[in-house]
Amino acid sequence: MSSEFKAGALSVNIFGESHGPAIGVVIDGLPAGEELDINRITEFMARRAPKKDGTSTRRSEPDVPEILSGVLDGKIIEGSPLCAVIKNTDQHSVDYKSISHLARPGHSDYTGYVRYNKSNDLSGGGHFSGRLTAPLCFAGAVAEQILNHIGIFTGAHIFKIKDICDTPFDPIKITAEQLEQVKSRYLPLNDVSKDEEMRSLILDCAGNLDSVGGIVEYCAIGLPAGFGDPMFDGMENRISQAVFGVPAVKGIEFGAGFASAGMYGSENNDEFCIEDNEVRTRTNNHGGILGGISSGMPLILRAAIKPTPSISRPQKTVDYTTMTEQELIIKGRHDPCIVPRAVPCIEAAANIALLSYFC
């Protein structure tokens, strides 16, 4: 099984299963001659790795990508797609044997069973697993470097975990340095004073055999005005398609988003001005996109991340092979909160969508 994002000349095809021998990605349509820093790619992917303080899964994978094609002497080459694989080395498939016919609440077990003629891989979620965000992050890290080369800089942070909020990005005056700085923090926060409170909440959820969700905020600066199209191929549409490729995402908003529904037009409208001989807006409720087209202001989006569905509390479910109701207790290694590890995943997906405008 594989999943593909395709826009313009760019296509990103992710393949493999959570408990298979390897997972990977094939990227076609990249601009030839672009230099890639492999160390920066592995640093990006390391941000997705589980934390060591009990707030993440105990599954431990080195996630070292092996590039099979598309790069020569550190540069992207013409005529050959970039292909990379990541070995799976820490699978515990036995955790799923006893529940192979039970629909785990919040998971795609039943829908996959129906959609794929009873042939979906249930071990670790198969191709539906968050494990597949590892090759997504590889592709997003490649996209980040190419975007940087043309003056576009991106970053993301934990906007909220449950009801604990971080300081939002400044939608007018965010800098590349600020976007880079947040990436180096253990929990990617603008306000580091929130770190202990968030960590404590996550640990409490783990102790209660429960989980918790939150929101990730992404920003891109340096994106020129004029990219995108109206209606069905607007910039929001394309970015949303990519961001919803992250399995835990359940919602997305741009700029003021849903808050704009409670505003007057006089509050929501962003008045135009001239600044440094460029057209700008005094506020940025539109999040850098108007009519599906980039405005030249910082692009701001927020993605809602659901609580990890694998929790160890008893839950009611069904055996969809015998059509009987059952009780389920999920075993295995699962994140009590996926939000910190989802930050680079959202960043990667949005980076890929932005890069598609330049390929």
What's this model, at a glance?
By secondary structure, the chain is an alpha+beta fold.
Explained architecture:
With 359 residues, the chain is of the alpha+beta class. It has one domain: Chorismate synthase, AroC fold (4-Layer Sandwich), CATH 3.60.150.10. Helix content is 23%, strand content 25%. It is built from 8 helices and 18 strands. The protein has a 5-stranded antiparallel sheet with strand order 1-2-3-7-4, covered by helices on one side. Strand 8 and strand 9 form a beta hairpin. Helix 1 crosses helix 3. The radius of gyration is 21 Å and the shape is globular.
Fold topology:
Blueprint (H helix, E strand, L loop, with lengths): L1 E6 L2 E7 L5 E7 L9 H9 L19 E4 L1 E2 L2 E2 L5 E6 L21 H7 L17 H17 L3 E9 L2 E2 L10 H8 L11 H13 L6 E8 L13 H9 L5 E6 L10 H4 L3 E4 L2 E4 L7 E2 L2 E2 L4 E7 L9 E5 L4 E5 L10 H17 L4
Antiparallel strand pairs: 1-2, 2-3, 3-7, 4-7, 5-6, 8-9, 8-10, 10-16, 11-16, 12-13, 14-15, 17-18
Key attributes of the depicted protein:
25% strand; Chorismate synthase, AroC fold; single chain; globular; five-stranded antiparallel β-sheet
Major sheet, described briefly?
A: 5 strands, antiparallel
Percentage of residues in strands: 15-25%
The end-to-end distance, rounded to whole angstroms, is: 26 Å
Largest beta sheet: what is the strand line-up? 1-2-3-7-4
